[in-house]
Design brief:
single chain, globular, about 0% strand, 9 helices
């Protein structure tokens, strides 16, 4: 159950500051059928999070607890460092004729395995339960997607600002440092 809440919170924080809301808000403006967009996003998120967490759970028996904590620290640090870079816009799907269900599915799959899935893998690896980590990461991504649809493109653009992304990056790096120090038994 700890993996569910940790994956939920980290997925919300990471997805909110990456290209996910940008893509979803754009698709929401293009297609007005928000429920179908959310279904497509849910299928894509469930697929990539399931694959990521199954891999983490498969690796879990092969690593020591300290190595698992260090893996989580690495995943959080990667997510934190990603907040310091500039975001390139997601691919434009406006000319696609695949509709409001398939377009978000393909769009989310093109974003691929990002920092949120890396953290979900690490949480599954640390806890040994892939199901809770996958569910939490998927729900967290859906919260961000729903928020992006509700806010629209203009309001979502604020999430891409450095004033929002830099504090998130710092927080993720501090949490990563705490896990790394604990894994190396320095605290």
């Amino acid at each position: 159950m700890d993996a569910l809440m940790a994956a939920l919170v980290t997925a919300i924080v990471i997805h909110a500051t990456d290209r996910t809301p940008w893509l979803i808000a754009g698709l929401g403006a293009c297609y007005r059928q928000h429920l179908l967009i959310l279904v497509g996003v849910a299928v894509a998120l469930a697929t990539v999070n399931a694959l990521a967490t199954i891999g983490g759970a498969a690796l879990a028996p092969r690593l020591t607890p300290n190595a698992r904590a260090l893996f989580l620290a690495l995943a959080l640090a990667a997510a934190g460092l990603g907040c310091f870079g500039t975001l390139k816009p997601p691919e434009s799907f406006s000319g696609w004729r695949t509709g409001p269900l398939l377009t978000p599915l393909v769009g989310m799959l093109t974003l691929g395995f990002g920092s949120a899935q890396f953290v979900a893998t690490a949480l599954a690896l640390r806890s040994g339960t892939s199901a809770f980590a996958a569910i939490g990461a998927t729900l967290g991504g859906l919260v961000v997607a729903g928020g992006a649809l509700a806010l629209g493109e203009v309001e979502v653009a604020r999430l891409r600002r450095r004033a929002v992304r830099l504090p998130v990056g710092v927080i993720l790096l501090v949490v990563a440092a705490v896990f790394a120090l604990g894994a190396l038994r320095l605290v």
